[in-house]
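Researcher: We plan to redesign the surface later, but first we want a full-length starting point. Tokens attached.
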């Protein structure tokens, strides 16, 4: 990721994800709707796959997750458990993309497997960390039943969505990369304009 233009895509996709967390996520959590994390995680994996289809580099998905967390921190109340969850999804997706896909942008069984493993992996890592390492009170009070529900129930629903959405994201990202290669100036200019719009919306919504 030595090319500074690569960071435009990272910040752009992180901001798309972050805006969804601010606009949709805060509404879902505020109404205490069931499986809010499933909807948000499924969308996050779609965005991450789209970004990876354009920029398939180790570390890029972790960076997207970091900027999504930063976007939410800047534009919404600082629920640090949510920020941790966002970062973990990006990092875990990065790990499995690097292991399974390398520089492959083709939608295939491996992209679906990447989504499934990322869903289970992110849910498991978050639940274990927040409960047994950070010891956040609501999770400690919920104990193993809450942890197991997050891993096996919410994780399974997220994995099911990811099996369909991650290949779609990679496919769209690969098509986007073709546009970037053909018209790089237009693509990067559009990305910068979109980035500005996202942050304005974030401030207004937040």
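Model: Full-length starting sequence:
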């Amino acid at each position: 990721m030595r090319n500074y233009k690569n960071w435009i895509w990272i910040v752009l996709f992180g901001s798309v994800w972050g805006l969804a967390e601010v606009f949709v996520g805060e509404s879902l959590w505020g109404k205490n709707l069931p499986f809010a994390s499933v909807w948000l995680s499924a969308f996050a994996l779609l965005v991450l796959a789209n970004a990876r289809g354009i920029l398939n580099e180790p570390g890029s998905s972790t960076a997207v997750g970091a900027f999504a967390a930063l976007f939410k921190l800047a534009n919404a109340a600082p629920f640090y458990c949510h920020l941790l969850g966002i970062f973990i999804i990006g990092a875990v997706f990065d790990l499995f993309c690097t292991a399974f896909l390398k520089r492959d942008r083709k939608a295939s069984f491996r992209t679906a497997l990447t989504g499934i493993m990322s869903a289970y992996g992110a849910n498991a890592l978050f639940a274990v960390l927040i409960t047994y390492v950070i010891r956040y009170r609501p999770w400690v009070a919920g104990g193993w039943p809450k942890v197991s529900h997050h891993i096996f129930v919410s994780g399974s629903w997220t994995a099911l969505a990811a099996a369909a959405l991650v290949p779609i994201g990679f496919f769209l990202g690969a098509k986007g990369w073709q546009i970037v290669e053909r018209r790089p100036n237009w693509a990067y200019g559009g990305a910068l304009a979109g980035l500005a719009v996202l942050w304005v919306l974030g401030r207004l919504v937040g």
